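Hey, quick one: can you model this chain's 3D structure?
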Amino acid sequence: MSFDLKDIASISGMPGLYKIVAPTRNGIIVESLAEKPVRSVAQARNRVSILQEISMYTNDADHTVPLAEVFDRIRTKYGSDLPVNPKSSTQELASFVESVLPDYDEDRVYASDMKKLVQWYQLVNQFVPYTQAEATEATPATEEKDAPAESAE
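Sure thing. Here's the predicted structure for all 153 residues.
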């Protein structure tokens, strides 16, 4: 995976994404992903979701796609210029997600999830370094994925 999401978190009650800096006795010290990062303490009562542990539902009930892989697919297809933004219509967001993850579960992935995906990708793409070495390794894997898909049809 090209984006390292193990230290990036979403915190309930706090807008945006945060980089985890250090643990404290009552929570964790976080730094906002913004032009001017601000450090604050996320209390233990806040729900902290690490982006590396988040996945998107697919039509296969036993399979989900990690958020980092979805971000990689978005970066491969669109780079930093997305055709949508978090305020786009539900239909535009759905077609965008379908272009990146064709087998996403339309019943369990809500419009609010799609808006978060776009918003989070924009923040991660801007403030989290993208590892180019892994990107060159992912290119042959993408070509290998295309070949079995053609034979399956």
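One thing worth noting: The radius of gyration is 17 Å.
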